[in-house]
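Comment thread on ticket #2218

A.B. wrote:
> Attaching the input chain for the structure job we discussed in standup.
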Amino acid sequence: MTPEIILKKYWNYDTFRLGQREIIQSVLDGKDTLALLPTGGGKSICFQVPALCQEGICLVISPLIALMRDQVNNLLQKNIPAAAIYSGMSYRTIDKILDNAVFGKYKFLYMSPERLTTEIAQVRIKRMNINLLAIDEAHCVSQWGYDFRPSYLEIANIRAAFKNIPILALTATATIDVIEDIQKKLEFRRNSAVFRQDFSRPNLSYVVRHAEHKDSKMLEIVQKVPGSGIIYARNRRKTKEIAEFLTKHGILADFYHAGLTPDERSVKQDAWINNEIRIMAATNAFGMGIDKPDVRTVVHMDLPNSPEAYFQEAGRGGRDGKKSYAVLLYDKNDAIGLEKQLEVDFPEMKEIRRVYAAVGNYYQMPVGSGLGESFDFELVTFCEKYGFEVMKAYACFKILEQDGWLSVSESAFELSTLKILVERQHLYDYQLKNGAAIDKILQGLLRLNQGIATNYSNINEYKLASFAKLPIEVVEKSLLHLHKDGIIDYRRKKDKPQLTFIRERADQNWLTIDWSRYMFRKKRETHRVKKAIEYAEMEICRSRQLLEYFGQAETHNCGVCDVCLNKQKNVLTTSELDILKHKILKLIAYTPLSIKEIVDAFAGKDRSKVIQTVQYLAEKDMIEREKDKFIPKKS
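C.D. wrote:
> Ran it. Output below, let me know if you need it in another format.
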């Protein structure tokens, strides 16, 4: 079938979006292809359509588990056989999926990059009839990129077994350096192609508002701009607070974050897409793979740590081409917070060694052992045992992972959530009737988690077990029993978190990392943070700043951002200039005045226009300074 027939059959579209058909044809011609498509540009169709045009299976590499699950579900609903393999799955499940892929039972197999490093995956993949290797979030392969993942470097090893199979690398944001690095790291062949759309969004007005009271400013924006919107916040708790705040003011709002169950996320997402909910308050987990064209407003409550992140999230507004707004609410604390976060993200070597040594002690792992071994891992419990700050330890684990010492599954950084569903008296009666273990667990829940009787709270089962002085297995079984009896709503974390030793355990004093690479990443991250702060603080066209950051050669002032609109508003007409000139010269003829005194003399007039006129008079030698005062030029 032709790409057009497949598009109509499975997606019921008559035509491709701008750029999609050319990318698909490049893949069908057997070329290694890099496609830079803006958020919402329809990246998945670019590999799904050509894969369906040919015999064999498409291997899709993606770091986003939620996105993999969503795409597999969407394909299955279209009766296209697909499966996904990611961290937390049992060996038996993975073995079965890989066998089915070898025997041609799937058209698409999604894998997280970490799975490529396992022997079972590498052996089976070589036996598959692969027709296309699709790499989503391809910027992760580059150390120049804002989300480098060492596991992405393994993709080139898979490529060696399929030299005649094209690669399609996809990303929404990449600088010139990253584009070149992606092609190099993925070993693109000579006849490769790069497709890059114009990233300018003339219908999207970028706005920065300096605001001390962000909630009230956010409410004002939502009330002023009708239609659907997204409010991005940095943490899960804040999303819930924003949704409650907006609801209290009569706006249909809900919240979304990665801690919700798949069913909850699906229900909330559908309600928002169908306009049953107007505003979604969310972390950056919201938006990936969601195609809602009529988003009129995207508000950021906090400054993201890179122009890439901001451009991608803000770009979810106005995909239908109609007037929309991307608003950043900013204050100086945002910049201070990002700079402090940089210090946390790049700890000193002695701290990295301390964390590594503690991991070895945690599992009683002798030096020289542990290669390839995996263990259950609970980050918070580990940090409490050894006195580490969670975020600093997390940064150390990331560096150890990037340098190939160990890997930690992403579920290690998640927590279960829980809420007590019954009244206090009912809870007390239940405690009396159900024995000492249940009593200790309920006491622990109330003591360790304030507000758990009214709101869902993150809980740490290991911490609860320590408080109750009970084995972790007893605590988990009891929580499930309490859930079944309707006493609590217990939402267990999805996957059992795992820590894997990639290399034998080393003596901490001999532990080394690639220091030049570490410093390179730190320098790049510092540059991104600096550019993010400049975006918020510099009075230069917002769109132009973003486009120039991504290396778009031909840029011009957009005319619709807050900077451009302010400049238009402050343009001095000839008649205004003549009137102000005459009045200023008359004023200072009587008495010399400072610039502030001149501006104050024109109460009600636009301050910038008065200053512009003073600058004009000085440039034309019609006035001169005498100390800090202006006087008419002496002839």
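A.B. wrote:
> Thanks. Noting for the ticket: The domain at 339-413+497-523 is CATH 1.10.10 (Arc Repressor Mutant, subunit A).
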